[in-house]
Amino acid sequence: MNVADGAPIGRRVVLGVAALGAVGVAVGSSVQRALDQAVAPLRARDTTGLTNLIPGNGFEIYTVTSSVPHLSAASYQLKVHGLVNEPASLTLADLEAMPQTKLTRDFQCVTGWRVGDVPWSGVRLGDLLDRVGVRSGARAITFRSFDGIYDESLTLEEARRPDVLVALRMLSGPVSYEHGGPVRLYVAPMYGYKSIKWLGEIEVVDAVAPGYWERRGYDVEAWIGKSNGRSDKAV
Amino acid sequence: MSVLEGQQNSAVTPGGDDIRRFGPATRWVHRMTAALFGSCLATAAILYLPPLSLMFGRRDLIMNIHLYCGFALPVPALLGWLTLGFRRDATELNRFATPDSAWLRARLPFSQARRQRQSTRPPATRPVAAPPVAARPNLLRVGGKFNAGQKLYAAVVAGSILVFLGTGLVMYLGQDLSIPDRYRTGASFVHTLFAYGIFFAVCGHLWMASRDPVARAGMRTGYVPRWWAVSEHPHWSALAPAPADGIADAPSPDAPDDDSAPPQHLRLRPDDPA
């Protein structure tokens, strides 16, 4: 009996595993939704972070630099400059003293995961722009992270939307370090890469400059459900 | 096919009591696949697990490493396919023969053989063993260097590589090809689940390897001692008697791994009609 006479079980297993994967791609979205619903109560109560191991709609933490400075509430400053009448460096206390807007909206990542009903609160970007006074000729905003690398942009019109916040609070607490604290942006109607974390600088400029991931292929206009080849439900 | 393989065909080193288990092609495929798979798993953990994401950052770089290691994953095996030695090992991994059925029946939790053994025999009897020699009329003339578990593991890893490639491509090209969201979500769901699965499989693989230095040396040097082969792979054809026997070694120019049997089988060999 030669080895080649045995049954080709190995090949069948390979094809079987591949077929399993293909079936998974076809039905995975539905399975994922059911799983998300099943573990949602667990996620809500989890303080260990272990539910992040369950595939699905939990926050993933994206950072693009090797490390990000830890800024305390006392040392944090937000620089607002460019085409404005009164350039300013705002402390966390300055921001907290401004009118706070609360929103409870989903966070949708362009890679597919979505965290539902996240409580956000902070200063409307529009209010902040009014405070420093935007000069004529301004068309867009460039945001820079104090991680030293990440940047993003919005048109002036987008920046003035009521659902665009300079967020100080998120998930019922101050914005945590891993979520971009002490201060981050939250652009509700756009994919997560617009909601720049560790916000350090807001510059009012005359034209949109594509941001970090946009230079790497993502759409500059990041409307949820209408960009990046995706059709997610709008937030 | 390769020049090297020509020199590697003798299953037994001249003079030594070591047996050749793996040729250079197979060992290099193993090594490169392991390195690439390891890189994929490590970068996957950094990309996916929040504490590690935060610790390592540099998402763009890590993502590119993951991407290119992933795309490269099938390359070693495809290159290995150009060599006779690797194709022979792959064929052997593919084919399941009588000893493999016995091996699986002895281990599968719900197999009839196991149930029968547990119900009819006292627990002191051999829990897992090849059936007695007399019960094996068709001994392998080629092959036997892998057990059925190793064959299954290889097949599952190969199948998983295909799944990782396919789902990875759906995620990677989803935006450019406007692949419907549900397939992109499905692909990333499958990619994640398979990553967990393969992580535990690889851990099991490493754990078994950690318990057997001889097996590790076999993968490192290509050779294993005869005593080890006798105990671990009693059906291995390379354990067959010397050429003087005239039966077992007839196909040896073509096959490094000849007929095999445990020592008691060697004594029975002259009566073997095969």
Description:
The complex is a heterodimer of chains A (235) and B (274). With 235 residues, chain A is of the alpha+beta class. Chain A has four helices and ten strands, in the order αββαββαββαββββ. Chain A starts with 8 loop residues before the first helix and ends in a 30-residue tail after the last strand. The mean pLDDT of chain A is 94. Chain B is mainly alpha-helical and 274 residues long. Helix content of chain B is 62%, strand content 2%. Chain B has 13 helices and two strands, in the order αβααααααααααβαα. Chain B has a two-stranded antiparallel sheet. In chain B, helix 2 packs antiparallel against helix 4 and helix 9 (148-177) runs antiparallel to helix 10 (181-210). At the A-B interface, helix 1 of A face helix 3, helix 6, helix 9 and helix 10 of B.
Give the SSE layout.
The complex is a heterodimer of chains A (235) and B (274).
Chain A: H1 9-45, E1 77-82, E2 88-91, H2 92-97, E3 101-108, E4 114-124, H3 125-132, E5 140-145, E6 151-155, H4 156-159, E7 164-170, E8 173-174, E9 184-187, E10 199-205
Parallel strand pairs in A: 1-10
Antiparallel strand pairs in A: 1-2, 3-4, 4-7, 5-6, 5-10, 7-8, 7-9
Chain B: H1 3-8, E1 18-20, H2 24-48, H3 50-56, H4 59-72, H5 75-80, H6 84-94, H7 98-107, H8 112-120, H9 148-177, H10 181-210, H11 213-221, E2 223-225, H12 226-232, H13 263-268
Features:
heterodimer; A: 235 residues; alpha+beta; 5-stranded mixed sheet; 5-stranded antiparallel sheet; 4 helices; B: mainly alpha; disordered N terminus
| Spatial arrangement of strands, main beta sheet of chain B | 1-2
Query: What's the mean pLDDT score of chain A?
Result: 94
Which regions of chain B are unreliable across 5 or more consecutive residues at pLDDT < 50? 1-15, 123-128, 130-141, 244-274
How much of the sequence of chain A is in beta strands? 25-35%
Q: Write out the strand line-up for the largest beta sheet of chain A, numbering strands in chain order.
A: 2-1-10-5-6
Query: How would a crystallographer describe the biggest sheet of chain A?
Result: 5 strands, mixed
The tally of strands of chain A reads 10
Question: pLDDT under 50 segments of chain A (min length 5)?
Answer: none
Distance linking N and C termini of chain A: 65 Å
Beta-strand residue percentage of chain B: under 5%
Biggest sheet descriptor of chain B: 2 strands, antiparallel
Average of pLDDT of chain B: 79
Quaternary status of these chains? heterodimer
